[in-house]
Design goal:
Rossmann fold; alpha/beta
């Protein structure tokens, strides 16, 4: 089957820090969805998590840049980290779609984001603009979270699709805890990211 439109994915998150689980899932999504490009979008501040401490966006952006170098399908956007105030996906999608108005768009998110999906700003417009894909975590949580969304907003649940492939079985929270304890993280993040964290003394 021939394709007329470029297939572009958007992968949003805090990436605090980006880790091998993110990368494995992103590569699998590119293959599964036959994406031409995947745009990583570190957010500045989730509007549903105001007040939470986050590593400055400049560092999180730089770590993503380090991690994705070498894969020609990947690029990183600074739209959200450079935008003042909370990060709203709808604003980002509208800006990105102006750059490629004829492309077909896909949005990738983690399972934890699905718990609040029905509370996102202009979520009804989001599902009209992009096809939404969720990357499950191990442990059978996917069906529970999807069922809860079906109970709260069945019309939105119909627009959410579970990705096949590697699951996000690494936690950024656990990585930060290991760094605080002086434990190694070389098996959890790319070497370039580990070096960046050490150089800038992050998470200590």
């Amino acid at each position: 089957m021939s394709r007329k439109e470029m297939q572009i994915g958007v992968f949003g998150g805090t990436f605090d820090p980006i880790h091998r689980g993110h990368l494995d899932a992103a590569r699998a999504a590119c293959d599964f969805l036959n994406l031409d490009r995947l745009i990583w979008v570190p957010n500045r501040q989730s509007p549903l998590r105001l007040g939470e401490d986050r590593t400055p966006g400049s560092h999180r952006l730089a770590m993503v840049e380090c991690a994705i170098a070498g894969d020609e399908r990947f690029e990183v956007s600074d739209l959200e980290v450079n935008r003042e105030g909370p990060s709203y996906l709808i604003d980002t999608l509208e800006a990105l779609k102006k750059q490629h108005p004829k492309a077909e768009w896909h949005f990738l998110m983690g399972m934890d984001s699905l718990d609040t999906f029905d509370r996102w700003v202009r979520v009804e417009d989001i599902v009209k603009m992009v096809k939404v894909w969720v990357m499950p975590r191990p442990g059978g949580e996917a069906q529970r979270v999807v069922t809860h969304l079906e109970e709260r907003a069945p019309h939105l649940a119909k627009e959410v699709h579970l990705l096949e492939g590697p699951q996000l079985d690494i936690s950024a929270t656990e990585i930060r805890k290991r760094i605080e304890k002086g434990q190694p993280i070389t098996d959890l993040v790319p070497s370039e990211v580990s070096e960046y964290i050490s150089e800038h003394n992050l998470y200590n």
